[in-house]
Amino acid sequence: MAQLSSLLQQQRCFFLLISILILPLRAMSAELPLSVTQALKEAGIPLSSIAVVVHAVDAEHALVRHNAQQAMNPASVMKLVTTYAALELLGPAYTWKTEALVDALPLGGQLNGPLYLRGSGDPRLALEQFWLLLRQLNARGVSAISGDLVLDRSAFALPIHDPAEFDNEPLRPYNAGPDALLVNLKSLRLTLHPDSEQKAVSVITETPSSGLRIENRLLLTQDACGDWREKIRPKIIGESIELSGSLSANCGDKALHLSPWSADVQVERLFRTLWRELGGTLNGKVREGLTPATGRLMAVQESPPLGEVVREINKYSNNVMARQVFPTLAAEHPATPEGARRRIKAWLTDKELKLPDLVLDNGSGLSRSERITADGLGQLLLAAWKSPVMPELMSSLPLAGIDGTLKKRLGNSAASGRAHLKTGYLEGVRAIAGYTLDSRDKRWVVVFLINDPKSRLGKPAMDALLRWVAER
User: pTM for this structure?
Assistant: First the structure.
């Protein structure tokens, strides 16, 4: 009898030991849902090409971890690193200032000398804000500028930027590089109007640009609209923009955004047009230079607070604005991308976040070299959940089925209105990461990265995971 009791006791200890060993493994290594693996199989994407983390914000271990320590290209999901770091390091109320300075005050409306425009990297110095700056100058007694317009970009020290380097599309606005005096995102907006009565496509210049000439060779067609942008072929010929290709009458009006000029030329064309509309004159030329220490401040245009800028970056995945914020994170002056990388890595160390595989390039995700693991993104989002800036970061993320890059996605699912997620897409890359509420109002961090030639077909698998989490 004693031997039987001892044997039973040994068996209980054995099963208790097995339970202790197995429970953490179960908590950390649940398999991918069948709906996800099936969608991946149909897309022809192997499990080795994806990385997934699903982790409750209040749990010690992840519910799902798949290839979680594999460094992958996250595309625009990398904006989560840049914007979260900016919110903590700079604060949600941080603003940029663009200043207009002079050597001497104007007399009788005449400025006898140059006008200095000094930037600090404002990502949101749009057409309207630039006009307001010039309006301030005009209201303070400047009407005729006898000297040059000097553009001071000394706040940033940047390497030479090639807008064709990423995808050989130098006129696409998303390829514009960072600039301490970035005006209107360095872009020009044209409206293409298909006119069935005239059997032609007319071009309307929406952005003021002195001396702009358009060579319109667009043809009107009656086929399906489809991917209309790929049918437009813009080309710079001297001082003119030539538009060839076609636009369907079924498209209606379409906005065509281009970045056709160097930064100096773009600012000059915009300044001369707006200044002339205000009744002003500029006799000198436009050139790059430095503001003297004795410069006298005449007008200041302040940006919206960082919290609003971050919302625009993440909701609409604005690459140029993210690239502007990135060097701003540097501790030194002038700011450099390398300085930003050092400060972000020091910030991660201070937060005890270990992301050894993190590779930062420009902080926007529009890069072939940037890398991060699903584990790293998961850690970052869990830390952000406990951060004082969590409300600002979460509200900046697209809301499934509601707005931003997720407006037309997951609208008829349990995740609609309950998932705040950053999306990312490049050729060979598709990614999504953020927060999702399930049916019991439990919040989860979800990360899904795909690096594969067929990644463009991976959206159904991602949506299947999000629905699975939301319906739990």
Answer: 0.91
